[in-house]
Amino acid sequence: MPNIKPISDLRNYNEVLRDIAVGEPVFLTRNGRGRYVLVDIIEYERLKASLKLMSQLAHGEKAGKEKGWMTIEEVEADLGIENV
Predict the structure, then answer these.
(1) 27-63, pLDDT tens digit by residue?
(2) Residue 83, C-beta contacts closer than 8 angstroms, at least 6 positions apart
(3) Residue 57 is part of which domain span?
C-alpha cells in the first residue's frame, strides 16, 4: 500500500524520513494532489541507472535500424575478441 502523506507532515520531517525504505517511497500531497516523492538514495540511484540504460538501449536500437545491424563476427572483430 502506498505511503501517502500531506506535505504539511514535513514539519516533523524525522517521522517522514523514518517511513522511507528502499522500494517504498513516501508520496507527498499538496491540496490533496500528488506533488512530490521521497525515495531512499539507493532507490534513486537505481532509477537513474535504469533510465540511463533504457536511453542507451533506445539509442542503439535506433542506430541499428538506421545504419543496419552488426553480425556477431563484426562485433567480435570490433571488440578484438577471437571467435571461440
Answers:
(1) 999 999 999 999 889 889 999 999 999 999 999 999 9
(2) 73, 76
(3) 42-79
